[in-house]
Amino acid sequence: MESTSPNLHDALINFSQSYLEQYRDKLGHFPVVEADEQWASPCELSKFNDDLVHWQPIKITEQLSFNNVENALEIKLHPSIKAYFSTIYSESIPATCEHGHLQLLFAWSKDDFDRLQQNLIGHILMKQKLKQDVTLFFAVTDQDDHVVTLDNATGEVWVEKVGRKPHKKLANTLEEFILQLSPDIYVEK
């Protein structure tokens, strides 16, 4: 399964660049996000106004590890989820597919990567407590309490209501899922 990582890496880079290009074509500038000095990111480019900064997804060049999660929970995480969260730093990216609208989640910075790992640990512990197969979230949908997850055993992509078993299969692999997405460009308010 490790061999899928380079293809997933390319799919994520291509998707994030497509989002960036379509955003700039439609709105004439880089995407913007609320400025927060306490959550600085290498994605930040320049001030847009007093409250917002321009940003862009960037390739992660440092080595990120999920060893602490795997060791703490005595579990091996699927290679696809590790590749997904260690490919780019980015604000969440809106996307659409035949199943609806969603937001792909990413780490905004190294500090945010650490926080993401804590959230994944909480999700895994909840699944174990409920005696459900382990899934790992990587996107949220426009439906309340529904997340897009990766089945840790199979690598399949599913929709699940938080606290419930996955109920709708979306793709056989994370790469396959990313390749079927289109950036969803809209004007922030």
From TrEMBL:
Primary residence: membrane
Gene3D superfamilies attached to this UniProt entry: Syd protein
Top-level taxonomic group: Bacteria
GO cellular component: cytoplasmic side of plasma membrane
UniProt-annotated location(s): Cell inner membrane
Keywords (A to Z) from UniProt: Cell inner membrane, Cell membrane, Membrane
CDD domains hit by this protein: Syd (cd16323)
Membrane association type: Peripheral membrane protein
Signal peptide: none
InterPro entries with a match to the protein in the record: Syd, Syd_sf
Main function: Interacts with the SecY protein in vivo. May bind preferentially to an uncomplexed state of SecY, thus functioning either as a chelating agent for excess SecY in the cell or as a regulatory factor that negatively controls the translocase function.
UniProt similarity note: Belongs to the Syd family.
UniProt name for this protein: Protein Syd
Organism in which the protein naturally occurs: Thalassotalea marina
Gene name linked to the record: syd
